[in-house]
Amino acid sequence: MGRDPLPDEELAARLAELPGWDREGDTITRAFGVRHHGGVALIVNVADIERLVGHHADIDLRWDRAGPKSPTGTVAPAAILLCLRH
After folding, report:
1. What are the Cα distances from residue 43, in Å, to 2, 32, 49?
2. Is residue 68 part of a domain?
3. d(CA 81, CA 84)
4. 74 CA to centre of own chain
């Protein structure tokens, strides 16, 4: 899996195939409704997968939701393929 950023057109096409994922300016995001401790577990699992694919998104944790945020300039095919699995 490559690590070069996706062109805007390809990023838009791939995001259209991913329910729940959105583009907000220069960031792709997804929020998962979770209870607080479930959000911590989600972060641990996402961080472990990100380490394996070499992509490290910011992860926003709130009391009732958690979700990764990734700058579009660094969105690699590996990261998008990871999104397709979750």
Report:
1. 24, 11, 10
2. yes
3. 5
4. 11
Domain with 46 in it: 8-20+29-77
The Cα-based distances of 81 to 2, 41, 73 in angstroms read 11, 21, 16
Span 15-29, pLDDT tens digits: 888 888 888 887 888
Write down the pTM of the prediction: 0.62
Per-residue pLDDT reduced to its tens digit, 19-60: 888 888 878 888 888 887 888 888 888 888 778 877 777 888
The answer to whether residue 83 is domain-embedded is: no
- 63 token code pair: 């009391």
Contact 72, 11 (CB under 8 A): yes
